[in-house]
Design brief:
Keywords: Membrane, Transmembrane, Transmembrane helix. The chain crosses the membrane at residues 35-58. The protein is an all-alpha fold. It has a domain at 8-64. 68% of the residues lie in helices and 0% in strands. It has 2 helices and no strands. The chain has helices at 8-29, 36-72. α1 (8-29) runs antiparallel to α2 (36-72). The longest helix is centred in the middle third of the chain and has 37 residues, at 36-72.
């Protein structure tokens, strides 16, 4: 059983930052010659992807919780006008 909730958006953001750090390290070591402007779209795209994954995961989690709550609810809903109320 996991100790905490998995957060895929944070994982995507972390992998993006690791990739950027690797690119900067390769550029600093001279193994790769990339202009600084190359990293800006990767950074912004990675953050956008992380936000999108976070939003999708939130929607899935909310839908799963609603479905679970609906399945656990065994009580009939109350009528709108109260004519079927138990007295």
């Amino acid at each position: 059983m996991p100790r905490h909730e998995f957060r895929p958006g944070r994982a995507v953001a972390g992998l993006t930052m690791l990739g950027l750090a690797g690119g900067y390290a390769a550029d600093a070591a001279g193994a790769w010659d990339a202009p600084w402007a190359f990293f800006l779209p990767l950074f912004l795209g990675g953050l956008w992807l992380a936000a999108t994954v976070t939003w999708v995961a939130y929607r899935v989690r909310r839908r799963r919780e609603a479905r679970k709550a609906s399945a656990e609810n065994t009580v009939a809903p109350a009528s709108a006008n109260g004519s079927h109320a138990i007295r």
